[in-house]
Amino acid sequence: MSWQAQLVLVLTAFVTMLFVLRLVRRRELRAKYSLLWLVTGAAFFVLALIPGLLDWVADRLGVGYAPAILFGIAIVFLLLVLVHLSWELTRLEDRTRALAEDLALMRSDADRDDV
Asked: Fewer CB in a 10 Å sphere around the end CB: N or C, the chain?
């Protein structure tokens, strides 16, 4: 890896981590979600600082083209994020439905008390 690519990767990882921390500080991103992105940024930071690491991992796994490992990891990572977000969406839909039902019951009781 050239020193220019290393520098771009280090700067990208650093800026990403600062951006995530800023979002958490401003309460625009919850801490439980920020850990995922901070770990990802730290992994890219390590890969940038140790350029031979990706080649070493590729040799150990028997992969001929080292950047293919990054694509594989990225695909698995994105699939896990999608599954997690789908789970969160389902959970929030269930909570919203339960709250709407509770509100309807409370309004019904309030209307009955007014009559």
From this structure: C
Rounded to whole angstroms, the Cα distance separating 49 from 58 reads 17
Amino acid symbol at 83: V
pTM of the complete model: 0.69
Would you call 29 helix, strand, or coil by DSSP? coil
Token pair belonging to 112: 């009955």
What pLDDT is stored for residue 19 in this prediction?
93
Please give the Cα distance from 99 to 15 (Å, whole number).
39
Average pLDDT, the chain: 89
66 CB-near residues (< 8 Å, 6+ apart): 54, 55, 57, 58
The DSSP output letter for 82 is H
Closest alpha carbon to 57 in 45, 70, 42: 70
